[in-house]
Structure formats: structure tokens, C-alpha cells
Amino acid sequence: MVIPRRILDGDFAGWLRDAMAARNMSQRMLAHRAGISHSTVYRLAMGEAVPTLATAVAVIRVLERPALRLEMISRATTDHSADGSRFRATAG
Questions:
Q1: How many domains does the chain have?
Q2: Which domain holds residue 26?
């Protein structure tokens, strides 16, 4: 796993807010996906808490997986239609 530079520079809260915004992810969604409480995400995003190593790893894994997300989207949009096209556009 690659640790984002901003985290190494001590800006976990700023990185967290920016990463969530870039992925249009709510605090509740991140909490659910990372397996932590919503209040923990809130305190981390506000800079009121410093994450444990386990919490930081869980959050980074959720927010730093663009390749996995693209792979899942590709699988979800696979279409074996009669015209031979492999993928189809989806709304969303």
C-alpha cells in the first residue's frame, strides 16, 4: 500500500476531506466501508483525532482504490449483446 504524501506530511484531516470530496463519499459511507464509526470519521476529518494505524490503513484502503473501482464498473457494465459490443454505457 502506498501512503499518500499529505498523510506522511501530517495532514491526515486535509487529505481525508479532499479524498472524500473527490470520490463524492459521505462520512457515513466511508465509516461503513472502512468498518469504523461515523463519529470517528467526523473527528478525523475535523482534525480532532489522530487515527490509529489500523484506522488509517482501513481509511486509506477505501479511499485509494481507483483501479479496483474501475474494474468493478467494467464488470458491471459488461454486455454480451447481439451487436458484439463488449461494454455498454450506463447512467450514473
A1: 1
A2: 5-76
Segments of the chain scoring below 50 in pLDDT: 67-71, 81, 85, 87-92
Give the CATH number for residue 17.
Answer: 1.10.260.40
Sequence-distant contacts of 8-14: CB under 8 A, at least 24 apart: 12/44, 12/47, 12/50, 12/51, 12/56, 13/44, 13/45, 13/46, 13/47
Instruction: Report the predicted TM-score, pTM, of the whole model to 2 decimal places.
Output: 0.67
pLDDT per residue over 25-46, tens digit each? 999 999 999 999 999 999 999 9
Is 50 domain-assigned?
yes
The whole-angstrom separation of Cα 23 and Cα 48 is 22
